[in-house]
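Good morning C.,

I know you're traveling, so I'll keep this short. The sequence:
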Amino acid sequence: MDQNTAIFEDRRKLTTWLSGANHSAADDLRYDEKMVAAYLEPHCWLAPALERISRLQSDHHPGIETVARREASTLLDTIYYRTSLRPTRISSSAEGGIAVVFEVPGRYADVECLNDGSVVAGLTDFEGHQEVHELYLDNRTQVVRVLREIQRFIERP
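The tokens, ready to paste straight into the viewer:
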């Protein structure tokens, strides 16, 4: 395994561990607090986003199920590893799932992870332009294509 592959795998394992998915007491011993903080320093948006998802779940917001939390964690993983997008906020959605929001003045996009396992992306520019895309998180090519479309939409002048 080359160094880049090893670093990528360490990042993936750490992301999974921080999101609470499949982590055990052995993992707790493996990742001490200083190492986690030092590792995440350059990637500061990821840890708070995963923490926010965890808090939404643990606060028992009405309607948020484990499936929405899992899908939101998978979505953040794809955003982090495949794009340069950075969520503006993570919140409970009107439908009871989890919304990952991207916004700038005049434009808004979000990806909602719903309790039934469906994932929907919406874009609007307050001038009447609206788009909606259904995402299939197991189709990484399609998800990355829509996320890059969101990125172009948010970053355009």
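Safe travels,
E.
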